[in-house]
Amino acid sequence: TIFIQRGRHETTWTVLRKFGYTDQLEVSDSYLRPYLHVDEGCSVELTEEGIEYLRGLFYKYDSDGDGLLSPSELASLFSVCPNIPWGDFSASVMTSEMGWLTQEGYMALWTLNVFLY
């Protein structure tokens, strides 16, 4: 806010653009989905740090600590994203009897998402 207070709006916009924001204050698609070249016959996978980061997100948004992400907890997790990246996942990964996402199902979806990249 110091740049705005001093009348240097162009600096504010420069900083916002550096972090992928557009003129409409939306994160640009190229920032959200950067190009990653993967040679034919090769694949990508999560590092241990990536796996721990994703597990940490699961626990952070599992607000009741039941080991499941309810629809509202899942919506909260992806509230800053354009959408939930998986669509209807209930038939493809482990869920509870209520159809809520288990930690195993959550990690399976991320593993698949990275593999298909």
Summarize the structure.
With 117 residues, the protein is mainly alpha-helical. Helices cover 44% and strands 3% of the residues.
Structure description:
This protein has 117 residues and is mainly alpha-helical. It contains 6 helices and 2 strands, in the order H-H-H-H-E-H-E-H. The chain has helices at 2-5, 9-18, 29-32, 48-61, 71-77, 103-115, and strands at residues 68-69, 101-102. It starts with a helix and ends with a helix.
Give the helix tally.
Answer: 6
Largest sheet: 2 strands, antiparallel
**Based on the structure, what is the oligomeric state of the protein chains?**
single chain
For the biggest β-sheet, the strand order reads: 1-2
The rounded distance between the terminal residues' Cα atoms is 37 Å
Question: What is the total tally of β strands?
Answer: 2
**Low-confidence segments, ≥5 residues, pLDDT <50?**
none
Instruction: Tell me what portion of residues adopts beta-strand conformation.
Output: under 5%
Structural class: mainly alpha
Globally, the shape reads extended
Helical content stands at: 40-55%
